[in-house]
Amino acid sequence: MKIHASILVMFSNYKGFYSFMRHLSNDCGHKFIDTSELCTSEIHDILWTSLDLKARVKNHSLGKPLEGSTVTMLCSCQSRSDNLLVQSALQALGADVLFMLGSRWEQYKFKKDIGKFCSLYSDLVVAGGRNHNSLCQLTEGTSVPVVNIASHKFAPLHALGVLMTLQEHFGRLTGLTLGWVGPMGKKLNTFICLLPKVGIHLKYNCSPTPNFPASPLVLPVGTNFCKTFNTRIEAFSDPLATITGVDVIGTSKHKKETQKLELHMLERANKNWIFFHILPRWEGEVSEDVFNHQNSLVWTLHENIKYTVMAVVLRLLKTYRPILVKPNFN
């Protein structure tokens, strides 16, 4: 992979640039910035492709399917680990990577112009930032596909990595119950929109104060999906009640001691429970004996997120047919 770290520059000082860029074409390529519009079969196909790519990488038979393609990364200083993960995925596919220098692209007023500029030099744009609306504005200006690394509202690549890990471990998705004990925000929002479509029930505790349960931003959307797919989303004010009877326990970084996961609490879960944590972590969210437990799939998950990134990018740029027999997700 060729890394061109200095080809693209932030261009706010270029006189007349914005007036020029606003006259370019406004055609918009396919975007992958959340999972709300994905149907069940599309989710299954992405997971199938992810599993296939993992198998082919392991047996050194993948080659470089995106050799000759160029991807621009709008790097986010808030998540260097995600940037590294995405860069590794693009390298495995053989794509050339352009870095937009200056990670604070969201501060620029004309975000559509940034999208148009990136489209001149790229076959695909991978972006992440604090504000999801900024990402939406960026996609309005692009004429190539856009993939969301993570915004404040959604983290689709992480959630797909979780589903891939569950499919590998359980051999199915339908009928599982996932318990989320952690913060509101992009991860929980994405699970609410994604899990019902693949038959997974969701229990969550995202309020550190028992008497003041919080309601995620996209809950009405998830509730409608539950009606369509005959699944459940339930909110709990107590972490123990959230964990009771679940197959999967998940969290991400936070500093709320009232939500800390301890090993004795997981006795409430189903016998063959598994645990995942979307990194990085702080000290407050999980004990060491849970994080390092034999049932913890933290590191498997973060390897698998790489393959879901590869699958999403490859499917946006190429016609790809997996060699692996399609799994049974039910």
TrEMBL record:
Enzyme Commission number: 2.1.3.3
Top-level lineage group: Eukaryota
Sample GO molecular function, one term: amino acid binding
Any one annotated GO CC term: mitochondrion
Alphabetized UniProt keyword annotations: Transferase
Residue ranges of domain Aspartate/ornithine carbamoyltransferase carbamoyl-P binding in the record: 31-168
Domain Aspartate/ornithine carbamoyltransferase Asp/Orn-binding: 175-314
A GO biological process held by the record: citrulline biosynthetic process
Top EC class, one word: transferase
PANTHER family: ORNITHINE CARBAMOYLTRANSFERASE, MITOCHONDRIAL (PTHR45753), ORNITHINE TRANSCARBAMYLASE, MITOCHONDRIAL (PTHR45753:SF3)
Entry similarity comment: Belongs to the aspartate/ornithine carbamoyltransferase superfamily. OTCase family.
Name used for this protein in its record: ornithine carbamoyltransferase
Species annotation: Cuerna arida
Upper taxonomic lineage: Eukaryota, Metazoa, Ecdysozoa, Arthropoda, Hexapoda
